Inverse folding.
């Protein structure tokens, strides 16, 4: 199965002909011009469409899909995600990653001296990335803590029901260090952020 990536979110309709207003998840829009087909999903249902045309506007994209010919039909897809194969996703720059590539990364912590090289290992794995979500001031890494996290922090990381706890860490350099998606590992810079 081909890897699929969320490249946009339908934010409403435009006009009477069934155009969709699309917000790009990367903030870039030029890669939409290469797309011939897209899949729309709300997380449970999916529908595939051929693209008639796309038109870039100020911080939004208008997309016309075949078989959607009215604003009423287009309104059904408000809030749905636009999913495409990796080849149609926005090309990455240095220091950028696809959320799908970050999911499943183990979160690793080890105190590192200033200017010392970082070597990511399975030692001191404190959790697993389950998602990356938008927060008030940027993206947050959603981490499901592991039981070995208790050994590092001397603190119980369980919910009241005895389940492992999920925490959210800002996806910023001061909190997340080295990211190695090839080996599915990310470095946590500070343990106190888990409290």
């Amino acid at each position: 199965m081909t890897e699929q990536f969320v490249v946009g979110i339908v934010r409403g309709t435009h006009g009477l002909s069934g155009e969709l207003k699309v917000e790009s998840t990367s903030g870039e829009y030029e890669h939409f011009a290469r797309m011939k087909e897209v899949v729309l999903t709300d997380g449970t249902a999916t529908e595939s469409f051929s693209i008639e045309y796309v038109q870039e506007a100020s911080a939004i994209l208008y997309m016309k899909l075949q078989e959607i010919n009215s604003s009423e039909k287009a309104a059904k897809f408000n809030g749905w995600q636009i999913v495409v194969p990796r080849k149609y996703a926005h090309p990455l720059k240095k220091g950028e990653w696809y959320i799908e590539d970050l999911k499943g990364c183990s979160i690793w912590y080890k105190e590192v001296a200033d200017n010392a090289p970082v070597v990511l290992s399975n030692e001191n794995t404190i959790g697993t990335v389950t998602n990356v979500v938008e927060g008030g001031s940027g993206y947050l890494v959603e981490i499901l803590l592991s039981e070995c996290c208790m050994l590092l922090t001397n603190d119980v990381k369980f919910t009241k029901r005895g389940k492992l706890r999920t925490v959210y860490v800002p996806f910023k350099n001061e909190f997340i260090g080295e990211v190695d998606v090839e080996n599915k590992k990310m470095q946590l810079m500070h343990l106190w952020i888990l409290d």
